[in-house]
Amino acid sequence: MSRGRSAVFLDRDGVLNVYLPGDYVKRPDELRLIPGAARGVRALNEAGLPAFVISNQQGVAKGLMTGDDLVRVDAALHDALGRLGARVERSYYCPHAAADACACRKPKAGLILQAAEEHDLDLAGSFFVGDTETDQEAARAAGVGTFVLVLTGKHPHAAASDDRALFATPPDHVSPDLAAAAAWIAARVAAG
Ligand SMILES: [Mg+2]
Ligand SMILES: [Zn+2]
What we know:
Rossmann fold; binds zinc ion; 5 helices
């Protein structure tokens, strides 16, 4: 039985690109990389850890954007990262609404399990970097070994303040941004 590779799953909005509270990144020109995001992905690449985007995009189900818009935004994300020498293997998106009760919308595990199946990943030895408790719940539900919270998205003060109380289960680690999270992950993997 193959044990598979360790990987790093990345939420998109608030981790790789600037999160727009109450809105969606509907077009490529609305996409802005968070400083340090490409550096973080590059560090994962250099550590031999494949990176996958795992993201809910309910704006599609709400009719605020089309599936084609989502494809264009995703291409822009890969291009922007690629220009900075950073590579994400693949993005997995849930376009559904909460009311659709699909199996892929986080906090459900569907997108992560699909990525693991398609890329022969060892989930227990893998990491999820996210900015919300929904990310953490999805990671735990899928059996991802380690969840790292970053402060570049929905909960910028979670390291020091009451925001942390929003998390029923404390994250395994809190990093200011993806660059710091990636450095922490790479060091842990190197230490075995
Ligand atoms: Mg997010
Ligand atoms: Zn879905």
